[in-house]
């Protein structure tokens, strides 16, 4: 069991076990990804990180260092952060990397090129380029942690394997949207191929990390993460927000369900706004947890009403109001949780000014959410 691997973090894992069983207060994390702070790196730019696994690992360890105080509920985590083009690169597709911009594909594939690439995509087919670098990252991390050169309380988690329609969009480009109307059969073939890619990569990295299929630690791009005892994979589907309800039902939902099936339940993330997609996702039994990349686009009452009605846990940041202090912010979030019976893993939009303030806010949040 994961708890046995991280003896110093047993309390945190037990805390999350209680939370998921409905027996304890809600978790709070004082952390954000780089991009939420308007930064793409701390010390080594993205070209340096993509070219040198040592620098990629060093950057992740610099980022996690402030969370080693273990004051909030977050588990200190690192991942091989190589961007959304990780899996296409693993297929051998050329990408472009710049110092301050995450990579993108140099040239999209045609539908025929993608479908003709392999009869079935397996792990050996993605063992190239950035996937090799990601594997080297985790191997180096594990080797140094065994030698006590890396703090044993830091936990590695699976890199960004995206989602099924997202992968299809990344690989094929905007042509995928035209094909939805006039080449539906071919879109299903592409989606099936992207599903193979997602499953091959997710299983590869989970096994490399010694993670069981139906559970995971995940930080969602942040240096502090969450223990999911019955949810084994994260899936990201931004591109679904760009198509109609009918198209989502035909071309996206069946593949989301198939992608999650080997991992018990899933943690869904997407950016953008699509009210119907939000309801669809929360109504899926397969989805335990939701993160919105743009929660500010949704009415908070409507969002929490859907979460409460479907029993979907929300994990992510929710914005402070103007002139709101830390106490007022947490009290307002707890009010919404009580009002709609929502379980919330809060990534705080308020940044404590000292360790003492952080401790006090953690205590306040736990008191406010105990028994909700």
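-> sequence recovered:
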């Amino acid at each position: 069991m994961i708890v046995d691997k991280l003896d110093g973090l047993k309390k945190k894992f037990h805390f999350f076990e209680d939370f998921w069983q409905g027996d304890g207060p809600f978790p709070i994390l004082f952390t954000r990804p780089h991009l939420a702070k308007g930064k793409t790196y701390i010390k080594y730019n993205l070209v340096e990180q993509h070219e040198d696994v040592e620098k990629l690992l060093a950057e992740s360890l610099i980022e996690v260092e402030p969370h080693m105080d273990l004051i909030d509920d977050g588990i200190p985590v690192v991942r091989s952060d190589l961007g959304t083009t990780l899996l296409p690169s693993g297929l051998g597709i050329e990408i472009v990397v710049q110092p301050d911009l995450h990579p993108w594909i140099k040239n999209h594939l045609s539908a025929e090129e993608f479908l003709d690439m392999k009869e079935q995509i397996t792990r050996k087919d993605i063992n190239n380029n950035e996937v090799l670098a990601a594997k080297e990252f985790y191997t180096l991390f594990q080797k140094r942690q065994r030698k006590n050169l890396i703090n044993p309380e830091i936990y590695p988690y699976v890199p960004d394997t995206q989602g099924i329609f997202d992968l299809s969009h990344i690989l094929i480009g905007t042509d995928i949207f035209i094909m939805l109307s006039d080449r539906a059969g071919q879109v299903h073939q592409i989606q099936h191929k992207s599903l193979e890619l997602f499953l091959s990569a997710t299983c590869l990295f989970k096994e490399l990390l010694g993670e069981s299929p139906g559970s995971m630690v995940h930080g969602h791009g942040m240096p502090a993460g969450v223990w999911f005892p019955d949810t084994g994979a994260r899936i990201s589907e931004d591109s679904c927000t760009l198509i109609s309800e009918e198209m989502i039902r035909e071309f996206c939902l069946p593949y989301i369900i198939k992608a999650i099936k080997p991992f018990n339940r899933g943690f869904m993330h997407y950016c953008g706004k699509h009210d119907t997609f939000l309801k669809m996702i929360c109504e899926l039994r397969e989805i335990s947890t939701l993160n919105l990349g743009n929660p500010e686009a949704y009415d908070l009452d409507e969002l929490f009403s859907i979460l409460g009605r479907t029993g979907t846990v929300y994990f992510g940041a929710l914005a402070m109001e103007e002139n709101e202090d830390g106490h007022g912010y947490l009290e307002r979030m707890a009010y919404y949780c009580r009002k709609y019976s929502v379980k919330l893993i809060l990534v705080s939009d308020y940044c404590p000014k000292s360790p003492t303030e952080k401790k006090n806010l953690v205590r306040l949040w736990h008191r406010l959410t105990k028994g909700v």
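The first helix runs from residue 2 to 5.
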